[in-house]
Amino acid sequence: MKKFLVPYKCWPSRDWAGSRLLVVLHSDNGSPMKASSFLVLLEKLGVSSSFSRPRVSNDNPYSESLFRTCKYRPDYPYKGFGTLQDARKWMSQFVYWYNEKHRHSGLQFVTPRQRHEGSALVILEKRRKVYVEARSRHPERWARGTRNWALSDKVALNPIKEDHRRIPEGGGWFLKRMRSNPAAAAYGRSEAKSLDECARLSKADQS
Question: Coiled-coil regions in this chain (predicted)?
Fold first, then answer.
């Protein structure tokens, strides 16, 4: 099965000399992608491995959320697309639905178009009034206040917590966690992929 999946996830890239074409498989640091059997298969196929740096895959939640929304559509072709034209047609329809019809929970259940055009403010104000009126009619049904329909200034998946932000001394939030968590320190040493990271780890051990 892997022999069919690997080429699908790869893209061509020129090496430093630009003399030959390389095939690179980029992935996160999940254990299936780093398993020895899988790496041996990549080597046999002439595919180079590329991994995201530990703890900086901030874009992954957004892409994975989009993939899930795409794959869970009722009309998603689980048996695959017949042709490239079929795939492009389906994706074009999906993008239209995603931006024009789909009410996103992260946007207070308005569409991206409504959010960008500014009409979301009017829609959410109407919803707020409906909730306030409903609560005034039947207060016994409401244990708390009405729902907050205000739009957030920032939308984030897995936002960085305050104690994970970079700090001026010590090299960053990762080292801050390592000092208080021996398990994280051991994991960080095994995952270090550059001399710069190794130097910071050594400095943390001495402090």
Answer: none
